[in-house]
Design a protein that fits this description.
Length: 201
C-alpha cells in the first residue's frame, strides 16, 4: 500500500471487523488516502457478455463515452456532446497477440503476462464455447444472475498465479491476508444457519 505523503491511515486487525483501515484525522471529501495495486482483479462475467470492454489487468474502461453510449443504446450513429471530456486513451491500448485479451497499456499487459496470463492464454480458441474457461464462465452465468457480487475468473486467475509464480510461499501469504473472519461475520453465519427466528434475539 502506498500512502499519501503523511501516514494518514494505518491498517489494523480487529476481532469485530477483521482487516481494517483507520485514519488519524479528518478526511476531506475527495481526498486520496492511499492507492494500491490489486493482488488480482476480474471483470464480472455478465459485463463481458454485454461487450463492456475493460483492461484485463486493472479493469480500466477501454471504451470511449461515445462507444459506451452507442453499445448500450444499440445506435452506431449516436454522438455525445463534449467528446474532449472523455478520459479514455485509445492510443495506449494493446492486446495479447495470441488471444486478443485487451489491456489499457503495455505496462498492464506485461504485468498480466508476468502474473497469470501465460497460463490462461487461450490462443485463438478464446471465443470457442468448448474451451474449458468459456464452459466454466457459461456455467457460472447460469448460476449467478446479475447483479453479480464476484466472478469465477477471480478463482482461475488466482490458480494461474499460483501455477505461474516463482515464489509460491510469498503469493500464498499475500492471499491469506484476505482469509479471515470477523466476529460479526461469524455471528451472521450462525444466525443464517439457525434461521430468522433467532435473529430477533
Amino acid at each position: 500500500m502506498a500512502c499519501s505523503q503523511e501516514p494518514r491511515v494505518f491498517e489494523q486487525k480487529t476481532i469485530e471487523r477483521g482487516r481494517s483501515l483507520f485514519t488519524v484525522g479528518p478526511v476531506a471529501a475527495g481526498e486520496v488516502l492511499f492507492e494500491e495495486e490489486p493482488l488480482v482483479s476480474s471483470q464480472f462475467s455478465w459485463n463481458k457478455v454485454c461487450k463492456y470492454i475493460a483492461c484485463d489487468y486493472c479493469l480500466k474502461n477501454l471504451e470511449t463515452a461515445t462507444q459506451n453510449a452507442r453499445r448500450l443504446c444499440k445506435d452506431g450513429k449516436l454522438e455525445l456532446p463534449y467528446p474532449e471530456c472523455c478520459e479514455t486513451v485509445v492510443a495506449s491500448q494493446v492486446f495479447c497477440e495470441q488471444c486478443a485479451t485487451p489491456y489499457c497499456s503495455e505496462q498492464c499487459r506485461s504485468k498480466a503476462f508476468q502474473k497469470y496470463h501465460r497460463v490462461l492464454c487461450a490462443g485463438s480458441g478464446v471465443e470457442n464455447a468448448d474451451h474449458p474457461l468459456q464452459a466454466l464462465e457459461n456455467v457460472w452465468r447460469t448460476l449467478h444472475y446479475p447483479p453479480e457480487t464476484t466472478s469465477i475468473s477471480l478463482v482461475y486467475k488466482l490458480l494461474a498465479m499460483i501455477q505461474q509464480t516463482n515464489n509460491r510461499g510469498e503469493l500464498l501469504s499475500q492471499i491469506s491476508l484476505f482469509c479471515n473472519r470477523s466476529k460479526d461475520e461469524a455471528a451472521d453465519c450462525i444466525h443464517k444457519l439457525l434461521g430468522i427466528s433467532i435473529q430477533a434475539l
